[in-house]
Structures are given as structure tokens and as C-alpha cells.
């Protein structure tokens, strides 16, 4: 069984848990207590040098970085659960295109907004609202492009769901919940897509905790 080292509410840990659920891969969550500094202990940094979560131990194979873990599990179990990464070269190229869209046109903006609005205040830091406004203004035309893409196809890489779609869920769900729902809801095709992916049983199973 895959051992998933992280903590239940971690966005990146839940991304890996989501893929496990989609692929019907059993996993055991090994809780890492950041408050006690367990992520900075030598036993942990020997496996994850950056002191971050998650990492996995798959029968002795250790891997960190949530997207790398997700891709590994998807490719290790190609014939069970949801495919998530196509095998056809052209379809895989479209998946890689969609994965780049997620990384550079969504997460590159939503991640820093969440840092300002959620993660920094948890550390006692003040939100830079001017920075949030700047990031949000930059995000808006990106989501217009999403809406255009999704007016022509069901998902970002075509008419089948892929990991590129699912990778939006941990950050996107939090972004939606903290007051930015209108950013999605004002765009009909984006809204349709978001309702589709955010109601997948695998996500609902880990949405509130891996």
C-alpha cells in the first residue's frame, strides 16, 4: 500500500489523495505534524529535503512533489480507475498543453492570492490587498480564455477529463470558498466545467481531508 506522508487538510496532499481515489489506489495517510516541526527532522528531510508535504513511499520507492507523484501513480496503474493521462501521442500532447495552462494561467495567480488571503494571515502576516487586486486583474483575462476553450470542448484537453482538470481542485475550491465565486460564476462554460469536476466522487471523498 502507498504510504502518503502529509496532513489531511494540505492542498497538495489532497491532490495526491484525489488521484489515488480516481485510480482506485489504496493509500495510508501518515500524518506529519508541522506544529511539532516533524517536517524539519532529519528523518523527514532525508526523504523530502525541502521539508514540505507530501511525499510517498511506495514499497520503498520514495517520491516527492505532488504533481510528480500524481503522474507516477496515473502511469503505474494505467488500466484501473480513470485514465487521466492519455496514451495516444496527440491526445497526450493536448493533455500536456492543458497541464501548462493550469500551471501558468491559473495556479500562478490563484496560488499567490491564497497566500495573501489565507496562508499569510495564518502565520500572523498582513494581507497585501493591492497585491491581491493586481493578481486578480491579471487572472481575469486568463479565465476568459478558459471560458472560450470550454465553449468548444468539455474539458481542458478535450472531451475526457484528465489530471490537468483535476489539478485545479485543491486551490480552486479554496479560492471559490473565500469570496471569489463570482470569478467562476460569471463565465458560463467555466462554471459548467467547474461544477463537473468539483462534484466528482473522488474529490468529494477528499475535499475536506485526505
Give a structural overview:
By secondary structure, the protein is α+β, with helices and mostly antiparallel strands. The protein contains nine helices and four strands; from the N terminus they run βαβαββααααααα. The protein has helices spanning about 10-25, 40-45, 65-75, 90-120, 130-150, 165, 170-185, 190-200, 200-205, and strands spanning about 1-5, 25-30, 55-60, 60-65. The chain has a four-stranded mixed sheet, covered by helices on one side. α1 runs parallel beside α3 (about 65-75), α4 (about 90-120) packs across α7 (about 170-185) and α7 packs antiparallel against α8 (about 190-200). The mean pLDDT is about 95.
**Number of helices in the DSSP assignment:** 9
Alpha-carbon distance between the termini?
15 Å
Question: In sequence order, what are the helices and strands, one letter per element?
Answer: EHEHEEHHHHHHH
Mean pLDDT: 97
Give the strand line-up of the largest sheet. 2-1-3-4
Report the strand count: 4
Shape verdict:
globular
Which class of secondary structure composition applies to the elements? alpha+beta
What does the largest sheet look like?
4 strands, mixed
Helix content: 55-70%
Our Rg estimate from Cα atoms comes to 17 Å
Q: How much beta, percentage-wise?
A: 5-15%
Low-confidence sequence ranges: none
